[in-house]
Input
Amino acid sequence: MNQQPKPRRVLFLDIDGVMRPTPKNSTSHGKCGFSRAAVEALRQVVTSTGCCVVISSTWREDKMNELRDALVQYGLQVVADSIIGATPLMDPADGPTREDEIDAWLHANQFCGRLAILDDEPFHHELRRWLVLTNQETGLAAAHAQKAIGLLKSGPIFPAHR
Output
């Protein structure tokens, strides 16, 4: 039985504040409110790096089908096809952070390779070196995409065993 090769490049994707900015005057379209600039920036990241996508957003809890549909609606079939999973849901009583959830996914999957994290919340520990911090009012922009591409193509390698 052939096993799927482990991904070598992974993009952790938050939705709100990254794909869906929060300002009053956002230029968005469609029912999900994705920013046009964010759509183009995400397309560029995925197509130029061939990365796999892991959803780290709260959308993973109950909106994964809606998210896949929205990605296709916005012409991001390549992104929808690149989704390999989502970060684990952790017990809220433990007070997990997004960083904890990503770290848990990395360890559970024994990931070793390049990664980038698109999020609008700061990280405070080891994973912050792979974070591309967006502004929740403007979302993912071209400059963020370039930073993510750099991390995924030639950034520091996340070691499988730390």
Observations:
- The chain has one domain: 9-158.
